[in-house]
Amino acid sequence: MTENYSIEKLEGMITTLMQQMKIPGLSLTVVDKGKAIFTKGIGARTLQGNLPATLDTLYGIGSISKSFTCLALLQLVEQGKLKLDDSVSKHIPFKLGNEEKPIAIKHLMSHSSGIPDLGVANILISRHSFPENETYVPMSSDSDFLIHANSAQAEVFADPEKNYFYFNGGYILLGMVIEAVSGKKNHKYIKENILKPLEMNRSTYLRDEFEKEEDRMTAYGTEKGNLKESMHPFDDLIHAAGGLISSVKEMENYMLMFLNKGKFKDKQIVKPSSIKQMLTPMIDLPQGSFGKSYYGLGLTITEDVFGETVIGHGGSTAVSSAYMGFIPSKKMGVVIEGNVGQTQGSIITQAIFATLVGKNPLEDHPTLRLDSKIEQLVGTYQTFKGINKAEIIKNGQQLYFKNPNQDCSAFPIIPITDSKKDYKFWIPMGLIKYPCEFKIDAKTGKIDFVFERNVYHKIGPLKPKKKEKK
User: Fold this and answer.
1) Which of 175, 243, 355, 453 minimizes the number of CB atoms within 10 Å of its CB?
2) pLDDT tens, 299-324?
3) CATH architecture of residue range(s) 4-360
């Protein structure tokens, strides 16, 4: 990573992803052996005036905020003010769950409460950032939230520790627990006991503090594939689940605290045992691109990312996003922030880790390998003399087969493997998996698509869609 060619390759990959994903601005920092080795702002923190993204640009970090909430709770545990095994109802008027197997604080911290998403983030993000999607569900105070949550007893799916459900509302409850136990507003407690000791002096949950800063993002939402200037969803109810604003420069201090087992410079923010608790698996996560994954307390744990265990968390407010990932055994980590809802932070981070451990990201990262494999297949196809036509479309990392002359849905084309040597796929139709295959001529680069009775020949790129007349 210290060699120029490695940095240049990564920068090229990042800027390509930014263009593909329509990301105006992105900032990142890379730490190796406990020291920053690469820091950069790329693109525009705001398109109006084309102001550059920097290391100090403030972005919404979304659900990475959850780890701050967990850190605050563990501080309160160390102070003897609560226990993670306490039922939530011991501290606040929360009524969901089974009295024989109550929902404990640790269950909300690990998304293992058995309560599925109750839509609170959607309600609040729509209200602040996408008012055209307003739901009109009352959600303007702690009282409104408790009415909403406590009326959802029929939604409780399972006893605690049985099912993983990412539950933003659980973190709103945890913010209420912090306030009940500490006697302070959640954001004030975290500012005094976490942000200030970590020298994260510009990081904030509050709109007025954000807006007085010159180096701050403009938030962008996506509407029908196009960027639209929007507003970050500042709201007291969002704070604990996803409301923190920060820069990669200040988040670097936060990550170093984890890499040093709870210590930053001469300050012990939490005990090493508390950090260990956060990094201990609590519940299984769905299988991803790499090894087994778990949710701990406000952080995810993924085994075997290029042979290493990666701790991390992403976050998105739909108009900004971020990712933090680190490898404790190597004191290695990455923080990435951007001013749209999806910055592909986890993929960029994993690509950086691949480079740091001597791998080739485009060859050894399964997602990037698959992406480069299928990107070349996108285009317009036709059979002999153009009698039958087809389009191979890419949406995210998924290919689709579409007949442009028929008013029907596109069919997904599923790869059998991510190997670049195997171009066999299948298309689901009801209960049947129809085999199909792409043939690439090694000499000419000519691509054919073999499906059912037809051989389609790629004749060029996809034709741009005609704009509808208003």
Assistant:
1) 453
2) 999 998 888 999 999 999 999 999 99
3) 3-Layer(aba) Sandwich (3.40)
The CA–CA distances, whole Å, from 368 to 35, 377, 396 equal 27, 15, 12
Q: Which of 190, 329, 205, 332 is nearest to 269 (CA)?
A: 190
d(CA 50, CA 59): 16
DSSP designation for 240? H
- Matching residue, tokens 């001013």: 339
Q: Cβ atoms within 10 A of the Cβ of 204, count?
A: 21
Which tens digits make up the pLDDT trace of 390-428?
Answer: 999 998 789 999 988 877 788 999 999 888 889 999 999
Answer whether residue 5 shows pLDDT above 70: no
Residue 365 is encoded by which pair of tokens?
């990262």
CB atoms within 10 A of CB 383: 15
Q: Report residue 383 CA to chain centroid gap.
A: 41
In sequence order, what are the residues at sequence separation of 6 or more whose Cβ sits closer than 8 angstroms to the Cβ of residue 420? 369, 372, 373
Do 253 and 202 touch, CB atoms closer than 8 A? no
Six-digit token string for 356: 């740091």
In angstroms, rounded to a whole number, what is the distance separating the alpha carbons of residues 268 and 197?
Answer: 9
Q: Where are the domains of the chain?
A: 4-360, 372-460
Among residues 241, 242, 263, 245, the alpha carbon closest in space to that of 254 is found at 263
**Highest CATH level, class, for 372-460:** mainly beta
Q: Decide: 306 and 359 in contact? Cβ < 8 Å.
A: yes
